[in-house]
Design goal:
With about 270 residues, the protein is of the alpha+beta class. It folds into two domains: about 5-195, Jelly Rolls; about 205-270, Proline Oxidase, Chain: A,  Domain 2. Helices cover about 30% and strands about 25% of the residues. It is built from eight helices and twelve strands. The protein has helices spanning about 15-25, 70, 75-85, 175-180, 205-210, 220-235, 240-255, 255-270; strands at about 5-10, 35-40, 40-50, 65, 90-100, 105, 120-125, 130-135, 135-140, 145-150, 155-160, 165-170. The strands form three sheets. It has a seven-stranded antiparallel beta sheet. A three-stranded antiparallel beta sheet has the order 9-8-11, with helices on one face. Strand 8 and strand 9 (about 135-140) form a beta hairpin. The chain is globular. The two termini are about 25 Å apart. The model has no long low-confidence stretch (mean pLDDT about 95). Pfam families: Asp_Arg_Hydrox, Pro_3_hydrox_C. This is Aspartyl beta-hydroxylase. One of its GO terms (molecular function) is 2-oxoglutarate-dependent dioxygenase activity.
């Protein structure tokens, strides 16, 4: 697995709480709705190319990022970013709020860009019932842990929590992670075993039962069956790629060519080209 924890940071709870309270009143967008199978993912820019909140998606550009009004409104977050990173390489920083019960469709990022980015997550509000994944590894990113995420590999997120998960997500153009870090403490390049979720194998009987959903699949429950498969990824040892394989298998077994095309086209969009 390429993603890994960088370090664990002490956070000022009082200052963090103040910034989180301010962020409740932000204007958010749902520009990542294509990757949410159920629930809600809202994001807002703290730094981007223009400094405008109207610029909601990623793109290639020269130069460093500019602070947006929402970035200006978060003094503690602004201080953290300046202390942790060499912001000359920063292209985007976003506040991302994942609603309780939400799951991402497995996907790969940066497909639309000419350059791969170095992506770093800093969880500001989360708990141990929120999971991330890379391929067939499911793990927890805990409060105050700084993580490098390899978003070019198949990944997903699943929240089984009763409150929003809030992360700062920073994207840099640089030759390496080391180039963007401004830490004066030792860093890690590992996935701590205590962060890894233990998932049993998917039994053959369970696999047959999932494929048996072909008997009931239709356009009205397609989304719910997709969500069930993604949740299964977080509970048993099937990879993000296998989620699409199972979904296509169910669609093929249903005899619904339109739903098989829907699954195949969505996989192409999420994994190959957009």
């Amino acid at each position: 697995m390429h993603s890994h924890r960088i370090t664990a940071l002490p956070l000022d709870e009082e200052r963090l709480s103040a910034d989180l309270a301010v962020s409740e009143g932000f204007v958010y967008n749902d520009s990542y709705a294509d990757f949410v199978s159920t629930g809600l993912l809202r994001s807002t820019m703290l730094w981007n190319q223009s400094g405008s909140l109207d610029e909601a998606s990623l793109g290639d550009y020269e130069g460093s990022a500019r602070l947006t009004p929402h970035g200006e409104a978060l003094p503690y977050v602004r201080e953290l970013i300046g202390r942790l990173f060499d912001t000359r390489y920063l292209k985007y920083a976003r506040f991302m709020r994942l609603a309780p019960g939400s799951v991402y469709v497995p996907h790969r990022d940066f497909l639309e860009l000419k350059s791969d980015m170095v992506r770093v997550h800093l969880p500001l509000q989360t708990d141990d019932t929120v999971f991330a994944s890379e391929e067939n590894t499911v793990f927890r990113m805990r409060l105050g842990e700084l993580w490098r995420l390899d978003a070019t590999r198949t990944h997903s997120v699943g929240s089984f929590s009763d409150r929003d998960r809030v992360h700062i997500v920073c994207d840099f153009i640089a030759d390496s992670l080391e180039q963007v870090l401004a830490l004066d403490t030792p860093t890690e390049q590992e996935l701590p075993q205590g962060n890894v979720a233990v998932r049993p194998p998917l039994s053959e009987q369970a696999r047959r039962s999932l494929l048996g959903l072909a008997e009931v699949l239709d356009e009205h429950n397609y989304q719910e069956i997709q969500t069930l498969l993604i949740k299964q990824h977080f509970r048993t040892a099937i990879s993000g790629d296998e989620v699409f394989e199972l979904l296509k298998g169910i669609a093929a077994g249903s005899g619904r060519a339109d739903l098989l095309h829907r699954a195949t086209a969505h996989e192409e969009y999420c994994m190959v080209n957009r």
